[in-house]
């Protein structure tokens, strides 16, 4: 059995904040932010919007897109570092609010790599026959974990949720390969300033920007090359790369270092900023109507921890003989 994505969903807060609308005390500008990051705007959750409510909205769309029943879903995973409550898991809130009454639900915390980590877990469960249909969501309200007086971090992040329905199918399509990694010696380079056990508070995001940038470029390149080697592919065989959306300069570097056309690297950071675990599923949702024309799609992630990972998804490439196997 292979893990096949059959539905996509997304949710963004109602409030969109342009660079020019950021607080004046940040002493920044649209030109400075755009030049350094590629970000033009971000969505910021209101008091009534939470990680769980955004996840539910994205999940509803993905389920509708998949044309399945709630009774078909036997696993809900939410990748997030900004859950609604310390416990229970945000995934159980999503399960409740969607009306899913069977199966299991839990969260995955791997920062910006969370969605790829969650896909790897789902794929393992599907291949061993434990679950048959999973709702996988990346959701964050990261604006609540930044210091809005620190322009080096607050301008970079936004809120949102992206979701996919992953179904077990007897096909050669779907998730072909997934590898996840971490190296805890880099913990201090991207972390929050507090937590329940240490300061009894959420804390704010702290980042050594240059080191994070360097590591991201290095691991994106390394992960991509390893994926190509492990699957006997060349870069010309890759139809689309969907990387974590942190900085447009990192995305440009991926294209430059790999020799792939810039048009094959999905860029949504200009619209959403860095939405952490939500960035890859949000990007997938942006290009969902084009996925049927692709064959080999690569996901690349890197986040706090440091964590990083890659995945190879095989789509039908427009082959009509695969239509019965869903979107992929």
Chart the SSEs and their pairings.
Elements: E1 2-11, E2 15-18, H1 30-37, E3 41-44, H2 51-66, E4 75-79, H3 90-98, E5 104-108, H4 114-127, E6 133-141, H5 151-154, E7 159-169, E8 174-182, E9 190-192, E10 205-207, H6 209-230, E11 240-243, H7 248-258, H8 269-272, H9 279-286, H10 288-291, E12 296-303, E13 307-314
Parallel strand pairs: 4-5, 4-6, 11-12
Antiparallel strand pairs: 1-7, 2-3, 6-7, 8-13, 9-10, 12-13
Helix pairs in contact: 2-3, 6-7
Describe this structure in words.
This protein is an alpha/beta fold. The protein has ten helices and 13 strands. The strands form four sheets. Strands 1-7-6-4-5 form a five-stranded mixed β-sheet, sandwiched between helices. Helix 2 crosses helix 3 and helix 6 runs parallel beside helix 7 (248-258). It is globular and about 55 Å long. Mean pLDDT is 96; it is low at 323-328.
């Amino acid at each position: 059995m292979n893990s096949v994505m059959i539905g996509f969903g997304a949710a963004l807060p109602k409030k969109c904040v342009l660079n020019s609308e950021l607080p004046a005390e940040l002493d920044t500008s649209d030109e400075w932010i755009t030049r350094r990051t590629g970000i033009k705007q971000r969505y910021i959750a209101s008091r009534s919007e939470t990680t769980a409510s955004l996840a539910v909205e994205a999940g509803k769309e993905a389920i509708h897109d998949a044309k399945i029943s709630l009774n078909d879903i036997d696993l809900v995973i939410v990748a997030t570092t900004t859950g609604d409550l310390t416990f229970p898991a945000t995934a159980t809130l999503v399960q409740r609010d969607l009306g899913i009454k069977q199966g299991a639900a839990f969260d995955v915390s791997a920062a910006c790599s969370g969605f790829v980590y969650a896909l790897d877990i789902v794929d393992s469960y599907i291949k061993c026959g434990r679950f048959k249909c999973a709702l996988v969501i990346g959701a964050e309200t990261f604006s609540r974990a930044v210091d809005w007086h620190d322009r080096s971090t607050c301008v970079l992040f936004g809120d949102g949720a992206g979701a996919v329905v992953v179904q077990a199918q007897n096909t050669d399509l779907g998730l072909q390969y997934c590898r996840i990694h971490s190296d805890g010696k880099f913990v201090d380079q991207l972390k929050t300033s507090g937590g329940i056990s240490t300061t009894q508070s959420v804390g704010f995001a702290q980042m050594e920007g240059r080191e994070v940038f360097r590591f991201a470029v290095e691991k994106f390149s390394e992960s991509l090359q390893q994926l190509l080697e492990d699957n006997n592919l060349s870069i010309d065989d890759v139809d689309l790369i969907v990387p974590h959306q942190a900085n447009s300069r990192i995305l440009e570097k991926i294209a430059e270092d790999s020799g792939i056309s810039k048009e094959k690297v999905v860029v949504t950071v200009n619209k959403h900023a860095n939405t952490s675990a939500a960035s890859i599923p949000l990007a997938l949702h942006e290009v969902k109507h084009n996925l049927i024309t692709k064959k080999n799609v690569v996901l690349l992630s890197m986040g706090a921890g440091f964590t990083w990972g890659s995945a190879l998804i095989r789509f039908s490439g427009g082959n009509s003989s695969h239509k019965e196997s869903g979107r992929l």
